[in-house]
Every structure is written in C-alpha cells, then in structure tokens.
Amino acid sequence: MKDPHETKQDPFGHRTNPAHAERTKRIVEFLEDDAPFRRLLDVGCSEGLVTAHLAQLAAHTTGIDTSEVAIGRANGSKWKDEADFVVGDFVEYEPVRKFDLVVVAGMPHLFDDVPKFVDAVGRCMKKRGGRLLVSHVKSTSGGDGYLSRLEAAGMKAVRSGEFRAGGSEHSIHLMRLV
Ligand SMILES: C[S@@+](CC[C@H](N)C(=O)[O-])C[C@H]1O[C@@H](n2cnc3c(N)ncnc32)[C@H](O)[C@@H]1O
Prior knowledge:
- By secondary structure, this protein is α/β, with parallel strands linked by helices.
- 29% of the residues lie in helices and 29% in strands.
- S-adenosylmethionine binds at residues 12, 43-44, 46, 50, 64-67, 70, 89-91, 105-107, 110.
C-alpha cells in the first residue's frame, strides 16, 4: 500500500483539523488520572504531533511509525525534542526497554491480526502494571467488536469511556494483559 505521507504533508489533518485536536485532548484527559508514566510508546505516530501532546504525560516518550517520510518530518519538526521517533513496524518491534503505556490511537482496526497485535503488545509492555490504551472512531472499527476481539486474544479492559469529537463517536479503553 502506498504511504499517504509521500503524497502530501500531514495526510491525516493532525495540524489542521480541529476535530483531531479535540480528540487528542480527550485522550490526554482520559489518561491524566493514571499519569505520570515512565515510558510511553505511541504506535503509528505519523509526523509526531499527537505524540508531542502525549509526551506531557510521561518522563520518556517514543513514537514508532512504518513511514520513513513521516518519521523524517517528526525529526525535523519543532516538537522533535518531545520524543524519540523511530521507523518500524509495531508488530515486529523489539524494544530494548519496555513501556508502561502503549498508545494505539485512531488506528487499532489496522491491526487485523489481533492475536499477532496482542503478542506485540506483550513484547513492548511491562508485565507488571503495563497498560494498553486503544482509542478509535466507532464507525471505522466495527463498533465495540474490536474490543471483544482484543479480549478474546488475552486483554482485559480496566477502564473504558466514550466521547464525541468532530461529530464522531469515539471509544477509549485502558487495557491490561490477562
Ligand atoms: C491513521 S494514521 C495516524 C494515527 C495516529 N496514531 C492518530 O492518533 O491519529 C496511522 C499511522 O500508522 C502508521 N502505521 C500503519 N501500520 C503501522 C504499523 N504496523 N506499525 C507502525 N505504524 C504503522 C501509518 O504509517 C500512519 O502514519
């Protein structure tokens, strides 16, 4: 599949779409009670703007994306010092140090092989106290069907919520490995 970042800058409207900014704000608010985190991983970080907002919740933040173009833009941005930005495929990522929060925002449905995704979460997340945050627009991810698939693959929601941003309904779940 062609990388949308090659076609234009900011293909997902992170810099320009107020609904996106509102969604990111709601995710940060949802996590505030559990912050600060020591090490946070933002999966599918794109050009790093969302990662820079998440970085206020953690002592150290990493963003990972398969797109070399997106990571190049993150590393050339004015928020480049807020996080480490790395090129990589999350499902194959083997970090040297594990994370206490793994964030998968706006894209969990892209991981269609849910057991493989959960294996990757297990490799990246601290065993004791590690958490996965998944947030998605309900209409693009089969509603709460995705949550059931995550639970069938060995994850359990510890706190869930819903919010509206830009006219769309979003689900948000903080999960742990069972
Ligand atoms: C919808 S976009 C941005 C999602 C972003 N997290 C947000 O909050 O809006 C999805 C991003 O995930 C990246 N991506 C897709 N599959 C990936 C994978 N397996 N590992 C890491 N990044 C991936 C794409 O290159 C793209 O930049």
